[in-house]
Design goal:
The protein is mainly beta. The protein has one helix and 20 strands. About 10% of the residues lie in helices and about 40% in strands.
């Protein structure tokens, strides 16, 4: 009789442990299912050409205010500690602070150096003989306010057929290069130490054309495992086929041989996915692509929204095609 009672007690204990374990597993699954994500778009409003960067323990996004050209006379910024909750910083730079900029203030590129924060931008949708092009502003804080550094464009002229827009500033071990250009051409220049001008390359050239196959606009560069990943947008920005392609090179000068598309529309989610930047979360192997897309069934070319999705690599270091989502990415703090 005693043995029966002991066996019954043992079975009861095992059953209780199993129930507890099952309950914990269910709770974990429920918790994971309920974990917050950024959602896409990540913040409200019509915003395009997002430049994302990490300053300290904070993620920042600097986009274009995506409205008709004559209304594009200011920039807002957004910051987050976890990729999920974003704070809007309004009017960090506007045409009142940039006397030569009248319209079409586009596509920021941002970087910090020597305790200052620099904000590069395009303005005026410049054509031959007009005033406009790429400007640079500076501030003491990531959220500004920014002030015009030069009082004139850094690059005004059409060189090698490249409209001076869509600049990306890249720090290669203390040497600062800028890739830029629309109209199907991409130039590369070298910036001086205080970003007030350009300096020649070793061969004496100031502007090097580095245009890859199918390039339209929106260059971006990052380095991983000793390789330079050069990325750009293809197609028309108002249309559904706008997309992002890339190349890998051993040098920041290329040559940039096109590998293929990695970001494009999903007719079930959004169209015209392009003009992006990349976040590499410090001290991790996690990469995110920050881009704009058109909402489904919207015919206004200016209606672009900023989104974030995960970017991964295969065993050869090639970028896997990005799945664009409504969910976005999970919360992640910087440690």
């Amino acid at each position: 009789m005693t043995n029966v009672k002991l066996k019954n007690a043992a079975w009861c204990m095992m059953a209780a442990l199993l129930l507890t374990a099952c309950g914990q597993t269910k709770q974990q699954k429920d918790s994971e299912a309920a974990a917050p994500t950024s959602g896409n778009p990540v913040f409200e409003g019509w915003y395009a050409d997002p430049e994302a960067i990490v300053y300290g323990d904070t993620y920042w996004i600097y986009p274009t205010y995506s409205h008709p050209y004559d209304e594009q006379v200011h920039f807002d910024a957004f910051s987050s500690k976890d990729l999920v909750t974003w704070t809007k910083h309004e009017n960090i730079l506007d045409s009142a602070a940039v006397k030569w900029a009248k319209r079409a203030m586009w596509a920021p590129s941002v970087i910090s150096k020597d305790g200052k924060y620099y904000f590069f931008f395009g303005a005026n949708d410049v054509h031959e003989g007009e005033i406009g092009g790429i400007g640079v502003a500076v501030a003491d804080k990531p959220e500004g306010p920014y002030r015009d550094l030069l009082g004139k464009p850094l690059i005004n002229d059409i060189i090698n057929g490249a409209q001076p827009i869509d600049q990306f500033v890249y720090n290669d071990n203390g040497t600062y290069y800028m890739y830029y250009g629309g109209w199907g051409h991409c130039n590369m220049v070298k910036l001086n130490d205080d970003f007030t001008g350009l300096v020649p390359f070793e061969d004496g050239e100031i502007y090097k054309e580095v245009t890859p196959e199918n390039y339209v606009e929106g260059p971006f560069m990052f380095k991983k495992d000793g390789k330079y990943y050069f990325m750009w947008s293809e197609g028309g920005w108002t249309g559904p086929d706008y997309c992002v392609a890339y190349a890998i090179a051993d040098s920041p000068f290329g040559p940039f041989k096109r590998i293929g598309k990695i970001l494009q529309q999903d007719p079930q989610v959004g169209t015209g996915a392009g003009h992006h930047s990349v976040i590499h979360v410090p001290n991790t192997e996690d990469y995110y692509i920050v881009y704009h897309r058109h909402p489904l069934n919207d015919k206004d070319g200016n209606h672009r929204v900023t989104c974030i999705d995960r970017m991964t690599f295969d065993e050869n270091g090639h970028i896997n095609p990005v799945k664009i989502t409504f969910e976005g990415v999970p919360a992640q703090t910087i440690r």
